Amino acid sequence: MMKDYKAGKLKNGKRSVRGKRKIKLNYTRVLFNLFKGGSFLLSIGVLGVLVYVFFGYLYTSPYFRVERIVVSGENRLSEIEVLNLARIDKGSNILEIDLRRVSDRIEQHPWVQKAFVKRELPQRIVIDVMERVPVAMINLDRLYLVDKKGVIFKEVGPEDGFDVPVLTGLESEYLASNKSISRNLIEKALTIIDELNKKGTLGVDQISEINMDPYAGLTIFTLEDGTQVKLGFDGYEQKLNHLKKVVSDLQERSEKAEYINLNYGEKVYVKLDKTDLPKTLVALHDTARR
């Protein structure tokens, strides 16, 4: 028998009957799911209330009020000055204090290189101050202090009595317009100071000045005799080794030098300072053989 699907009828004229599905709802399961969903939402709501109450307690409880602020590491600054910079009120909630802002406020002071601030729950704040250590002064129309990282951080005041070398040769206008070159020269000067401290050739307290010349390099001047020691732009470790030998040799001879030039490799040129003889340029023998 052939079927006419297009017409939706059988060939004998009878309409085909399609089966219908009966949907039976499981009301028990539906109610269970509704109850389950409602319980979940209720749990979330209860949890939210508990969190709100908990944090409300933390931020209002007298148990978390600041009762003590401990300051350490201060030297040039006093504890009172650090506390005034920090601006933390005793009795304020310890959890509401923005530690980063407190640190930033303290670091605004020129003597402060870094300030570390932390909470010690429940009632104590600890402030650890790292102060700058001046290793030189720089003459920029006025004298300013320079730390070991080359940061020019403070104009020298009457209270700043430091026995450190003075960096010369740069002017404030040149420093502002040639920052990279100036920065490089200052770093080289600090390298020389560091090397002098290590080798003990000349104590830093024996150096009065380090001249920084963008074209000729660095020259140091001794405090006692005003001897010029020409060091140029690089190779400071080797040059200071040579200088140590030259200084020792001059001391043995009881002679003084007007200047010492260390820019000729293994040879060192010394201009002797003699009042009874003409000042002569003397080439000392090869330092590598000594």
Structure description:
The protein is of the alpha/beta class. The chain is 33% helix and 28% strand. Strands 8-7-6-9-10-11-12-13-14-15 form a 10-stranded mixed β-sheet, with helices on one face. Strand 13 and strand 14 form a beta hairpin. Helix 5 packs across helix 6. It is elongated.
Could you give a short description of this structure?
This protein is of the alpha/beta class and 290 residues long. It is built from 6 helices and 15 strands. It folds into 3 domains: 33 residues; 70 residues, Ubiquitin-like (UB roll) (Roll), CATH 3.10.20; 156 residues, Rossmann fold (3-Layer(aba) Sandwich).
Could you outline the blueprint of secondary structure elements for this entry?
Layout: E1 3-4, E2 9-10, H1 27-60, E3 68-72, H2 79-86, H3 99-107, E4 112-120, E5 124-131, E6 134-140, E7 142-147, E8 152-155, E9 166-168, H4 172-177, H5 179-199, E10 207-213, E11 217-222, E12 228-232, H6 236-253, E13 257-264, E14 267-272, E15 281-283
Parallel strand pairs: 3-5, 6-9, 9-10, 12-13
Antiparallel strand pairs: 1-2, 4-5, 6-7, 7-8, 10-11, 11-12, 13-14, 14-15
Helix pairs in contact: 5-6
